[in-house]
Recover the amino acids of this structure.
Protein backbone atom coordinates (compact mmCIF):
# COMPACT_ATOMS: atom_id res chain seq x y z
CA UNK A 1 0.00 0.00 0.00
CA UNK A 2 1.35 3.43 -0.96
CA UNK A 3 1.84 6.26 1.51
CA UNK A 4 -0.96 8.19 -0.20
CA UNK A 5 -3.37 5.26 0.22
CA UNK A 6 -2.38 4.85 3.88
CA UNK A 7 -2.94 8.54 4.56
CA UNK A 8 -6.33 8.42 2.83
CA UNK A 9 -7.49 5.41 4.87
CA UNK A 10 -6.19 6.96 8.09
CA UNK A 11 -8.03 10.20 7.40
CA UNK A 12 -11.25 8.37 6.55
CA UNK A 13 -11.04 6.27 9.72
CA UNK A 14 -10.25 9.28 11.90
CA UNK A 15 -13.28 11.11 10.53
CA UNK A 16 -15.53 8.05 10.99
CA UNK A 17 -14.43 7.59 14.59
CA UNK A 18 -14.67 11.26 15.50
CA UNK A 19 -17.62 12.62 13.55
CA UNK A 20 -19.18 9.64 11.80
CA UNK A 21 -20.96 6.47 12.89
CA UNK A 22 -17.81 4.36 12.99
CA UNK A 23 -15.54 2.55 10.58
CA UNK A 24 -17.87 -0.42 10.18
CA UNK A 25 -21.66 -0.54 10.40
CA UNK A 26 -23.23 -3.25 12.57
CA UNK A 27 -23.87 -6.36 10.48
CA UNK A 28 -25.78 -8.98 12.49
CA UNK A 29 -26.15 -12.41 10.96
CA UNK A 30 -29.53 -12.78 9.21
CA UNK A 31 -32.07 -14.59 11.34
CA UNK A 32 -35.75 -15.37 11.65
CA UNK A 33 -37.66 -14.67 14.86
CA UNK A 34 -39.63 -17.77 15.84
CA UNK A 35 -41.23 -16.31 18.96
CA UNK A 36 -41.10 -12.93 20.64
CA UNK A 37 -42.22 -12.82 24.25
CA UNK A 38 -40.76 -10.88 27.19
CA UNK A 39 -37.23 -12.07 28.05
CA UNK A 40 -37.42 -15.10 25.75
CA UNK A 41 -37.15 -13.98 22.15
CA UNK A 42 -36.14 -17.03 20.11
CA UNK A 43 -34.45 -16.64 16.76
CA UNK A 44 -33.09 -19.09 14.19
CA UNK A 45 -30.11 -18.04 12.11
CA UNK A 46 -30.81 -18.22 8.39
CA UNK A 47 -28.85 -20.47 6.09
CA UNK A 48 -27.81 -23.20 8.49
CA UNK A 49 -28.68 -26.41 6.69
CA UNK A 50 -30.12 -28.90 9.15
CA UNK A 51 -29.37 -32.59 8.82
CA UNK A 52 -32.38 -33.28 11.01
CA UNK A 53 -30.40 -34.78 13.88
CA UNK A 54 -29.92 -31.89 16.29
CA UNK A 55 -29.89 -28.15 16.79
CA UNK A 56 -27.60 -25.77 18.68
CA UNK A 57 -29.21 -23.30 21.08
CA UNK A 58 -26.99 -20.41 22.17
CA UNK A 59 -27.56 -19.37 25.79
CA UNK A 60 -26.27 -15.90 26.78
CA UNK A 61 -25.65 -14.82 30.37
CA UNK A 62 -27.52 -12.08 32.16
CA UNK A 63 -25.90 -8.63 32.28
CA UNK A 64 -24.47 -9.15 28.79
CA UNK A 65 -26.19 -8.71 25.42
CA UNK A 66 -26.97 -11.76 23.31
CA UNK A 67 -24.76 -10.23 20.62
CA UNK A 68 -21.83 -11.91 22.41
CA UNK A 69 -22.41 -14.79 19.99
CA UNK A 70 -22.41 -12.54 16.91
CA UNK A 71 -20.19 -9.49 17.42
CA UNK A 72 -19.34 -9.09 13.74
CA UNK A 73 -18.32 -11.25 10.76
CA UNK A 74 -15.23 -13.17 11.80
CA UNK A 75 -16.10 -12.82 15.48
CA UNK A 76 -19.35 -14.75 15.41
CA UNK A 77 -19.82 -18.20 16.88
CA UNK A 78 -23.37 -18.11 15.51
CA UNK A 79 -22.09 -17.72 11.93
CA UNK A 80 -19.46 -20.40 12.48
CA UNK A 81 -22.06 -22.91 13.61
CA UNK A 82 -24.43 -21.91 10.82
CA UNK A 83 -21.70 -22.21 8.20
CA UNK A 84 -20.78 -25.61 9.62
CA UNK A 85 -24.20 -26.80 8.52
CA UNK A 86 -25.86 -26.78 11.92
CA UNK A 87 -29.31 -25.44 12.71
CA UNK A 88 -28.43 -22.59 15.07
CA UNK A 89 -30.76 -20.80 17.46
CA UNK A 90 -30.48 -18.04 20.08
CA UNK A 91 -32.57 -17.11 23.11
CA UNK A 92 -32.43 -13.38 23.89
CA UNK A 93 -33.58 -12.00 27.27
CA UNK A 94 -33.68 -8.39 26.12
CA UNK A 95 -33.58 -5.45 28.50
CA UNK A 96 -33.82 -5.94 32.26
CA UNK A 97 -35.62 -3.11 34.07
CA UNK A 98 -36.92 -2.25 37.53
CA UNK A 99 -40.18 -4.00 36.60
CA UNK A 100 -38.23 -7.28 36.39
CA UNK A 101 -36.84 -7.02 39.92
CA UNK A 102 -38.71 -10.11 41.14
CA UNK A 103 -37.21 -12.42 38.53
CA UNK A 104 -34.84 -15.02 39.95
CA UNK A 105 -32.87 -18.10 38.97
CA UNK A 106 -36.11 -20.10 38.80
CA UNK A 107 -37.43 -17.91 35.97
CA UNK A 108 -34.55 -19.03 33.78
CA UNK A 109 -34.11 -22.60 35.03
CA UNK A 110 -37.82 -23.52 35.11
CA UNK A 111 -39.37 -21.30 32.48
CA UNK A 112 -37.28 -19.30 30.00
CA UNK A 113 -34.66 -21.90 29.08
CA UNK A 114 -36.95 -24.98 29.15
CA UNK A 115 -39.34 -23.16 26.84
CA UNK A 116 -36.52 -22.16 24.48
CA UNK A 117 -35.19 -25.73 24.43
CA UNK A 118 -38.63 -27.20 23.79
CA UNK A 119 -39.42 -24.75 20.99
CA UNK A 120 -36.02 -25.27 19.39
CA UNK A 121 -36.50 -29.03 19.47
CA UNK A 122 -40.00 -28.71 18.00
CA UNK A 123 -38.65 -26.52 15.17
CA UNK A 124 -36.28 -29.30 14.16
CA UNK A 125 -38.84 -32.08 14.32
CA UNK A 126 -38.51 -33.06 17.96
CA UNK A 127 -34.80 -33.86 17.81
CA UNK A 128 -32.47 -33.15 20.79
CA UNK A 129 -30.74 -29.82 21.36
CA UNK A 130 -27.08 -28.97 22.00
CA UNK A 131 -26.81 -26.09 24.50
CA UNK A 132 -23.90 -23.66 24.24
CA UNK A 133 -23.66 -21.10 27.03
CA UNK A 134 -21.15 -18.36 27.75
CA UNK A 135 -20.28 -17.11 31.23
CA UNK A 136 -23.20 -17.59 33.63
CA UNK A 137 -25.26 -18.61 30.60
CA UNK A 138 -23.37 -21.90 30.75
CA UNK A 139 -24.11 -22.18 34.47
CA UNK A 140 -27.83 -21.65 33.81
CA UNK A 141 -27.76 -24.25 31.02
CA UNK A 142 -26.23 -26.83 33.38
CA UNK A 143 -28.68 -26.05 36.19
CA UNK A 144 -31.60 -26.31 33.74
CA UNK A 145 -30.42 -29.72 32.59
CA UNK A 146 -29.93 -30.83 36.19
CA UNK A 147 -33.41 -29.68 37.23
CA UNK A 148 -35.30 -31.09 34.23
CA UNK A 149 -34.08 -34.50 33.11
CA UNK A 150 -36.97 -34.80 30.64
CA UNK A 151 -35.80 -31.95 28.41
CA UNK A 152 -34.45 -32.95 24.97
CA UNK A 153 -30.84 -31.93 25.68
CA UNK A 154 -28.14 -33.81 23.77
CA UNK A 155 -25.06 -32.00 25.12
CA UNK A 156 -23.99 -28.88 27.01
CA UNK A 157 -21.01 -26.61 26.36
CA UNK A 158 -20.08 -24.00 28.97
CA UNK A 159 -17.51 -21.37 27.96
CA UNK A 160 -15.98 -19.27 30.74
CA UNK A 161 -18.74 -20.37 33.14
CA UNK A 162 -18.14 -19.91 36.89
CA UNK A 163 -18.59 -23.30 38.59
CA UNK A 164 -16.65 -22.61 41.79
CA UNK A 165 -16.69 -19.15 43.37
CA UNK A 166 -13.86 -20.08 45.73
CA UNK A 167 -11.69 -19.87 42.59
CA UNK A 168 -13.03 -16.48 41.47
CA UNK A 169 -10.83 -13.38 41.65
CA UNK A 170 -11.67 -11.04 44.53
CA UNK A 171 -14.28 -13.29 46.15
CA UNK A 172 -12.36 -13.76 49.45
CA UNK A 173 -12.19 -9.97 49.80
CA UNK A 174 -15.92 -9.61 49.05
CA UNK A 175 -16.75 -12.25 51.64
CA UNK A 176 -14.56 -10.54 54.23
CA UNK A 177 -16.43 -7.27 53.72
CA UNK A 178 -19.79 -9.07 53.78
CA UNK A 179 -18.95 -10.69 57.11
CA UNK A 180 -18.78 -7.26 58.71
CA UNK A 181 -22.43 -6.58 57.89
CA UNK A 182 -23.73 -10.10 57.41
CA UNK A 183 -24.18 -9.26 53.73
CA UNK A 184 -27.03 -6.89 54.61
CA UNK A 185 -25.50 -3.77 53.06
CA UNK A 186 -25.21 -5.30 49.60
CA UNK A 187 -28.58 -7.08 49.60
CA UNK A 188 -30.38 -3.98 50.90
CA UNK A 189 -28.84 -1.74 48.24
CA UNK A 190 -29.69 -4.19 45.47
CA UNK A 191 -33.29 -4.54 46.64
CA UNK A 192 -33.68 -0.77 46.83
CA UNK A 193 -32.40 -0.37 43.28
CA UNK A 194 -34.47 -3.29 42.00
CA UNK A 195 -31.30 -5.03 40.82
CA UNK A 196 -27.94 -4.10 39.36
CA UNK A 197 -28.46 -1.23 36.88
CA UNK A 198 -27.11 -1.61 33.37
CA UNK A 199 -24.73 1.33 33.78
CA UNK A 200 -23.13 -0.42 36.76
CA UNK A 201 -22.58 -3.69 34.89
CA UNK A 202 -20.99 -1.70 32.05
CA UNK A 203 -18.71 0.11 34.49
CA UNK A 204 -17.75 -3.16 36.19
CA UNK A 205 -16.83 -4.77 32.87
CA UNK A 206 -14.66 -1.78 31.98
CA UNK A 207 -12.85 -2.10 35.30
CA UNK A 208 -11.88 -5.68 34.47
CA UNK A 209 -10.41 -4.38 31.20
CA UNK A 210 -8.78 -1.29 32.70
CA UNK A 211 -5.61 -1.77 30.66
CA UNK A 212 -7.68 -1.63 27.45
CA UNK A 213 -9.35 1.59 28.59
CA UNK A 214 -6.06 3.25 29.55
CA UNK A 215 -4.30 2.38 26.31
CA UNK A 216 -7.24 3.09 24.03
CA UNK A 217 -6.00 6.51 22.73
CA UNK A 218 -2.61 5.04 21.84
CA UNK A 219 -4.25 1.95 20.33
CA UNK A 220 -6.44 4.08 18.07
CA UNK A 221 -3.55 6.34 17.04
CA UNK A 222 -1.24 3.45 16.24
CA UNK A 223 -3.91 1.58 14.24
CA UNK A 224 -5.65 4.50 12.57
CA UNK A 225 -4.92 3.09 9.09
CA UNK A 226 -5.93 -0.47 10.03
CA UNK A 227 -9.67 -0.52 9.40
CA UNK A 228 -10.15 -4.16 10.37
CA UNK A 229 -8.42 -3.66 13.71
CA UNK A 230 -10.54 -0.60 14.48
CA UNK A 231 -13.70 -2.47 13.47
CA UNK A 232 -12.89 -5.16 16.03
CA UNK A 233 -12.45 -2.47 18.67
CA UNK A 234 -15.81 -0.96 17.75
CA UNK A 235 -17.55 -4.31 18.05
CA UNK A 236 -16.34 -4.59 21.65
CA UNK A 237 -17.44 -1.01 22.34
CA UNK A 238 -20.94 -1.73 21.03
CA UNK A 239 -21.11 -4.91 23.08
CA UNK A 240 -20.17 -3.09 26.28
CA UNK A 241 -22.57 -0.22 25.60
CA UNK A 242 -25.49 -2.66 25.23
CA UNK A 243 -25.00 -4.49 28.53
CA UNK A 244 -28.26 -4.88 30.48
CA UNK A 245 -28.53 -5.23 34.26
CA UNK A 246 -29.42 -7.95 36.76
CA UNK A 247 -32.91 -8.38 38.26
CA UNK A 248 -32.87 -7.71 42.00
CA UNK A 249 -33.99 -11.17 43.11
CA UNK A 250 -31.64 -12.93 40.70
CA UNK A 251 -28.66 -10.97 41.95
CA UNK A 252 -29.71 -11.56 45.54
CA UNK A 253 -29.61 -15.31 44.90
CA UNK A 254 -26.31 -15.00 43.03
CA UNK A 255 -24.83 -13.03 45.92
CA UNK A 256 -26.13 -15.26 48.69
CA UNK A 257 -26.04 -18.74 47.23
CA UNK A 258 -23.11 -18.58 44.80
CA UNK A 259 -20.78 -15.75 45.82
CA UNK A 260 -21.05 -16.02 49.62
CA UNK A 261 -21.89 -19.71 50.07
CA UNK A 262 -20.41 -21.17 46.86
CA UNK A 263 -23.28 -23.63 46.39
CA UNK A 264 -22.22 -24.20 42.78
CA UNK A 265 -18.69 -25.13 43.84
CA UNK A 266 -20.11 -27.71 46.23
CA UNK A 267 -22.24 -29.11 43.43
CA UNK A 268 -25.69 -28.37 44.87
CA UNK A 269 -27.49 -25.04 44.46
CA UNK A 270 -30.17 -24.29 47.06
CA UNK A 271 -33.14 -22.18 46.02
CA UNK A 272 -35.43 -22.02 49.03
CA UNK A 273 -36.29 -25.60 49.97
CA UNK A 274 -35.14 -26.85 46.61
CA UNK A 275 -31.81 -28.51 45.80
CA UNK A 276 -30.42 -28.63 42.26
CA UNK A 277 -27.42 -30.96 41.98
CA UNK A 278 -24.94 -30.73 39.11
CA UNK A 279 -24.48 -34.49 39.50
CA UNK A 280 -27.97 -34.85 37.97
CA UNK A 281 -26.68 -33.61 34.59
CA UNK A 282 -26.41 -36.72 32.43
CA UNK A 283 -25.64 -35.22 29.01
CA UNK A 284 -22.02 -34.96 27.78
CA UNK A 285 -20.39 -31.68 28.81
CA UNK A 286 -17.61 -29.56 27.29
CA UNK A 287 -16.03 -26.91 29.53
CA UNK A 288 -13.74 -24.20 28.15
CA UNK A 289 -11.72 -21.98 30.48
CA UNK A 290 -9.34 -19.10 29.86
CA UNK A 291 -6.03 -18.96 31.76
CA UNK A 292 -5.95 -15.20 31.08
CA UNK A 293 -9.65 -14.66 31.88
CA UNK A 294 -9.82 -11.98 34.60
CA UNK A 295 -13.55 -12.45 35.22
CA UNK A 296 -13.85 -16.24 35.44
CA UNK A 297 -10.42 -17.80 36.07
CA UNK A 298 -9.81 -21.12 34.35
CA UNK A 299 -9.79 -22.96 37.68
CA UNK A 300 -13.37 -21.82 38.34
CA UNK A 301 -14.46 -23.46 35.07
CA UNK A 302 -12.37 -26.61 35.48
CA UNK A 303 -14.05 -27.20 38.85
CA UNK A 304 -16.99 -28.63 36.91
CA UNK A 305 -14.94 -31.74 36.18
CA UNK A 306 -15.34 -32.80 39.82
CA UNK A 307 -19.00 -31.80 40.36
CA UNK A 308 -20.57 -33.04 37.10
CA UNK A 309 -20.20 -36.65 38.22
CA UNK A 310 -23.38 -37.92 36.53
CA UNK A 311 -22.47 -36.67 33.06
CA UNK A 312 -21.81 -39.22 30.34
CA UNK A 313 -18.48 -37.41 29.82
CA UNK A 314 -16.87 -34.16 30.90
CA UNK A 315 -14.14 -32.61 28.78
CA UNK A 316 -12.14 -29.55 29.82
CA UNK A 317 -10.17 -27.39 27.38
CA UNK A 318 -8.42 -24.02 27.61
CA UNK A 319 -8.38 -21.03 25.29
CA UNK A 320 -6.27 -17.85 25.34
CA UNK A 321 -7.84 -14.44 25.67
CA UNK A 322 -10.09 -12.41 27.92
CA UNK A 323 -13.51 -13.46 29.21
CA UNK A 324 -15.11 -12.37 25.93
CA UNK A 325 -11.99 -13.25 23.96
CA UNK A 326 -12.26 -16.99 24.59
CA UNK A 327 -15.70 -16.84 22.98
CA UNK A 328 -15.18 -14.33 20.18
CA UNK A 329 -11.52 -13.26 20.11
CA UNK A 330 -8.95 -13.64 17.35
CA UNK A 331 -7.87 -17.10 18.53
CA UNK A 332 -11.35 -18.43 19.33
CA UNK A 333 -11.80 -20.03 15.89
CA UNK A 334 -8.73 -22.22 16.38
CA UNK A 335 -9.42 -23.04 20.02
CA UNK A 336 -12.92 -22.72 21.50
CA UNK A 337 -14.78 -23.05 18.21
CA UNK A 338 -12.59 -25.97 17.11
CA UNK A 339 -13.17 -27.76 20.44
CA UNK A 340 -16.90 -27.20 20.08
CA UNK A 341 -17.00 -28.36 16.47
CA UNK A 342 -15.25 -31.61 17.36
CA UNK A 343 -17.38 -32.13 20.47
CA UNK A 344 -20.64 -31.67 18.55
CA UNK A 345 -19.50 -33.95 15.76
CA UNK A 346 -18.83 -36.69 18.31
CA UNK A 347 -22.43 -36.53 19.51
CA UNK A 348 -23.78 -37.70 16.15
Amino acid sequence: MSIAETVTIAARNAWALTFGSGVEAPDPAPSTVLSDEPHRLLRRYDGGASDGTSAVLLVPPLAAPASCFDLRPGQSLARFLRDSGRATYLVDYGEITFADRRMGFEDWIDDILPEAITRTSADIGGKPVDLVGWSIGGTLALLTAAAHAHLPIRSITAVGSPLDYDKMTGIPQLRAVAELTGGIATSTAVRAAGGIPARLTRAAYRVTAWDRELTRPWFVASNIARTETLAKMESIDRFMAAMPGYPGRFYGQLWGRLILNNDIGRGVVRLGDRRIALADVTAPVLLVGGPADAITPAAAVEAGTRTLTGSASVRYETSPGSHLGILAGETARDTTWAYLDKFLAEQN
Summary: The domain at 3-346 is CATH 3.40.50.1820 (Rossmann fold). Residues 189-193 have pLDDT under 50 and may be disordered.
